[in-house]
Specification:
With about 120 residues, the chain is mostly helical. About 65% of the residues lie in helices and about 0% in strands. It contains five helices and no strands. Keywords: Signal. This is Lipoprotein.
């Protein structure tokens, strides 16, 4: 039975492949994508806040549940692209605000939206 070792050429090829793959995904997102993701998040947060704190007079069915899901999904996008800043944890704070009615966490995510230029959407 013949050996399966590839020798130095195989090692160099493997090292080059690992190096090339390590760079994948390290690219910064385009500024317009970042702005769109932040705007989506802050709009979803604003809708959730409105439904959570000033619900309509008549029942609103699943609107609050859907708004909660939308804002958490938008927070996941920000988290995935590391768009938190200044030590903030948008995903964790969003989850705490939505699921545990944590007003301090809600204040931090509202401050995040204000800091990234969407202060006019923030009512709370």
């Amino acid at each position: 039975m013949r050996g399966t070792r590839g020798g130095p050429a195989a090692l160099l090829l493997a090292a080059a492949l690992v190096g090339a793959l390590a760079g994948c995904g390290a690219e910064e997102p385009a500024p317009e994508d970042v702005a769109a993701w932040r705007e989506d998040y802050c709009q979803d947060l604003s809708l959730w806040q409105r439904l959570a704190h000033d619900p309509p007079e008549k029942g609103y069915g699943n609107d609050l549940v859907l708004a909660s899901s939308a804002v958490v999904t938008a927070a996941k996008v920000l988290d995935r692209h590391h768009l938190d800043h200044g030590g903030s944890h948008v995903l964790r704070d969003t989850g705490d605000a939505v699921s545990a009615n944590d007003r301090y966490a809600e204040g931090r995510i509202s401050a995040y939206c204000s800091a990234v230029g969407f202060e006019t959407l923030m009512k709370y």
